[in-house]
Amino acid sequence: MSVPLLDLNRQNASLHSELVAAFEKVLRSGHFILGGEVESFEREAAAFLGAKHAISVSSGTDAILVALMALGIGPGDEVICPSFTFFATAGCIARLGATPVFADVHADTFNLDAADVARRITPRTKAIMPVHLFGQSAAMEPLLALARQHNLAVIEDAAQALGARQHGRCCGTIGDFGTYSFFPSKNLGGFGDGGLVATNRDDLAEKVRLLRTHGSKPKYYHKVVGGNFRLDALQCALLRIKLPHLPAYCAARQRNAAYYGSRLAGLGGLTLPQPAVGNDHIWNQYTLRVGGHGRRDALRQHLTAAGIGAEIYYPLPLHQQECFAGLPKVSLPTTEALAREVISIPIFPELTEREKTEVADSVIAFSKLSGTVAA
Ligand SMILES: *Cc1c(COP(=O)(O)O)cnc(C)c1O
User: Fold this and answer.
1) pTM, whole model, 2 decimals?
2) Which CATH number fits domain 246-369: 3.90.25.10, 3.40.50.720, 3.40.50.2000, 3.90.1150.10?
3) Using CA atoms, how far apart are residues 64 and 87, in angstroms rounded to an integer?
4) Atom number, ligand 1, closest to the C-alpha of residue 195
5) Cβ(113) – ligand 1 distance below 6 Å
6) Could you read off the pLDDT of 20-48 as tens digits, one per residue?
7) Helix 233-242 crosses helix 36-49 at what angle (to 10 degrees)?
């Protein structure tokens, strides 16, 4: 039996008739840009998050871009972010002419290490951008303390963490801005590209709304240079169907993670992901660390041969990417070790019992084959 890393059709098939009805409603309305569906979705998303403002945008990438633009970040500015993340985090900083400054992460959570961030603050630093990687919050308190001390903005890249919490507060509502993605592989997967910006600050919300439509207010009078960062009414109508199910999707991922935790505990050479104290982890990915030279790649080959989907998030840290070769060289030992050792296995909500068993059995068999089962 093969097990996919992700199967979107299972989730969407269960909502088929509701999704088709929402599509038809928008089709018949003839209203495709902004309007009622967009406003309703934004209201529902804000309520879900407990945020004052939720503004839908064209992608998770554009959510980061527009948040940075609203903060006025540009040439000469530095923004501190992890290197162990998806490219968009740093790509958006660079696109605005600012400099991404990469800090190292904690080995246990894969998230920003505030002590390393502190060492990289300069008079040019304007913001810190923690990423809540794989669905659990970065340790926000020490980052917020640094931000207060140095007067920095905090943008939370919560693309993988919509629904995750830290000490009861939703990821993305703790700093000045939270940014989210509805890319189909995220916990709230849309039907194409989509994103969201959350903020509790009225002034920043106003700026994002302005920037989302070319900075125009009223129409054809442009206060600032923005872009077309709108999310389609169609996408909002479809996401409104799925949003109420998000807690159940996250709970199913948590059950799958608990299952792997119980089956895979104690295997030598393998480190299992653990939620940090105070975090509600929503498991966008279930990511193992495989120690030993070449063993991660061997596990991947083993799983692939068994027909089990697995992926490396992320194989080359951002500070080592060709496009950033012009930046000052940095050494990020934990990030570099993680890039060599991590592998993500299927965790999506609709995995069956048989599939989970198959994945766990296969990982255990690998561990035994390579003779590293703990005594
Ligand atoms: C997915 C993702 C993004 C970008 O979102 P898109 O909707 O694909 O543009 C940004 N940051 C992180 C950490 C992501 O995982």
Assistant:
1) 0.97
2) 3.90.1150.10
3) 12
4) 7
5) no
6) 999 999 999 999 999 999 999 999 999 99
7) 40
